[in-house]
């Protein structure tokens, strides 16, 4: 690297840093133990010796082509995924349909078709129809005959 600099003056610390960054990682680990105060020429000699002793093994990732069993397995997974997707879409459609039918409050309301009180079919109120002379809550108009004063009750039921 000093030869590449040629006649130009370059700071040795910068040159050392540039050279150091271009070394293999395993060599950098060893040389970093020597410290930064060592001269560049000494570090270069040491790096050459380390490179002679330690041969970096280069690994290459390779991939075997897919075999018939691999392709069959992947196709099986793809079919299962397609089936699950179809089932999920069907389920979402069903849920949306059910939710669309349940628009409004989620509690049961009393039917409006029947009135709360029974319909009168006669002139006599429901209480007198059910309890007769013992009725206590007569609702007007009621044609039930008033009890006579001889009656021992609590007074008129009206």
UniProtKB/TrEMBL annotation:
It comes from the Eukaryota. Residues 102-121 are annotated as: Disordered. Residues 74-101 form a coiled coil. Residues 109-119 have a biased composition (Basic residues). Keywords: Coiled coil. This is Uncharacterized protein. It comes from Schistosoma rodhaini.
